[in-house]
Amino acid sequence: MSYDPSLEASVMPTYSRYPVTLVRGDGMLVFDDAGCEYLDFAGGLGAMPLGHSHPRWREAVKRQADMLTMVSNLFFTHPQAELATRLAEVIDIGDAQVFLCNSGAEANEAALKIVRRWGNPQGRARVVALDGSFHGRTIATIAATGQPAKRAAFEPLVDWFEFVPPNDVSALDAAIGDATAAVLLEPVMGEGGVIPLRDDYLRAARSLTSERGALLVADEVQSGSGRCGAWRASSLAGVTPDVVTLAKGLGGGLPIGATIARSELSFASGEHASTFGGGPVPCAGALAVIDVIEEEGLLENARRQGSAITGVLETVLDDQPLVTEVRGKGLLIGVELAEPKAKSVVLALIESGMLATEASPNVVRLSPPLIVTTPHAQTAVEMLAAAIDRVASGAEVSA
Ligand SMILES: Cc1ncc(COP(=O)(O)O)c(C=O)c1O
């Protein structure tokens, strides 16, 4: 575990990186520049559903790169048209159209523009979002993010948002009024510490928005694309949003985002755009992701492995006082600690040959590829329990 400080000399220090330089990946494993192997339960922050260098994905991307890389959105391409059709099918919110972009923040920007455009003629300009939420780093999406520390340096921001505590139906009920254009929520709040919204809360969000004439927007950038065991986690609660956003896992490692909206909410010509959005290569990657997830039964695998990992962790960590809760949905799992020691646990894991991430100072997040098998899961659980024991015992972990 090491890195060369010259690697960060010219890079804006927006990320506090772990001290390891990765050079290669293969399935569930990644390798650093010293040849050390890591079991990848970080999964590119949930962006690697098929693991590293899946042969089907690699072939699809290579084939498309050989054929056509970029033509702009002034022309039709088959991969974009096919992907939009497939996404409208799997996301399944009824008659829908898709805007393709390059990231989660952009997918949410498009969703917010859709909300604004729809709400304006009705005098509905307010958006209800949740405390602790995360929707991206652009000016509008950071304004929608319920984490004041992330907003503070950039104020004044757009002032459409009001925040309510998650999983509190009465607070949501009180917040949705005549001026509310939409409720924006993540079915599992990933960056907020892996906090699943309860099914009854999601259902209340749907019925309250429907009753009061507002839209429901599900940010499934982290929880979607199969991560929680369904194409969108909101479907696990039987809830159908008006707008769904995806990114992260969708491209299987290439940058792509998608805003899927009921057709009557669609942008008109000239109202939104992206030079690279929906380019042939990321679309070919995303189509391979969808095919492989379906053909290899990876939604079912995410549900099965996710509940096995969560269940075993609960048992193994039951008498570990540093752990207060194990929670999550499918393969988006958080281990909450009684103290802000998630970084130390992640560093201890890296030392022992496994990658995971912090979802907050108190929460260690596991978001492995959806191809994870039982032996990987068993190894990961053992390594995580050992790393937590090590940190709990006060052992020194190199930073
Ligand atoms: C729920 C959610 N929305 C939006 C984003 C922003 O995505 P991106 O980093 O691709 O812009 C993230 C990223 O973590 C996310 O978890």
Give a verbal description of the structure.
With 399 residues, this protein is of the alpha/beta class. It has twelve helices and 17 strands. Strands 4-12-11-10-7-5-6 form a seven-stranded mixed sheet, with helices on both faces. Strand 16 and strand 17 (363-366) form a beta hairpin. Helix 2 runs antiparallel to helix 9 (280-295). The longest helix has 19 residues, at 298-316. It is globular. The chain starts with 21 loop residues before the first strand and ends in a 7-residue tail after the last helix. The model has no long low-confidence stretch (mean pLDDT 97). The structure holds pyridoxal-5'-phosphate (PLP). Residues 103-105, 108, 134-136, 186, 190-191, 219, 221-222, 247 line the site of pyridoxal-5'-phosphate (PLP).
Describe the protein's topology.
Layout: E1 22-26, E2 29-32, E3 37-40, H1 43-46, H2 55-67, H3 78-91, E4 96-101, H4 104-119, E5 126-130, H5 139-143, H6 148-151, E6 161-164, H7 169-175, E7 180-185, E8 188-189, E9 195-196, H8 199-212, E10 215-219, E11 243-246, E12 257-262, H9 280-295, H10 298-316, E13 323-329, E14 332-337, H11 342-352, E15 354-355, E16 357-360, E17 363-366, H12 374-392
Parallel strand pairs: 3-15, 5-6, 5-7, 7-10, 10-11
Antiparallel strand pairs: 1-2, 2-3, 4-12, 8-9, 11-12, 13-14, 14-17, 16-17
Helix pairs in contact: 2-9, 3-9, 10-12, 11-12
Pyridoxal-5'-phosphate binds at residues 103-105, 108, 134-136, 186, 190-191, 219, 221-222, 247.
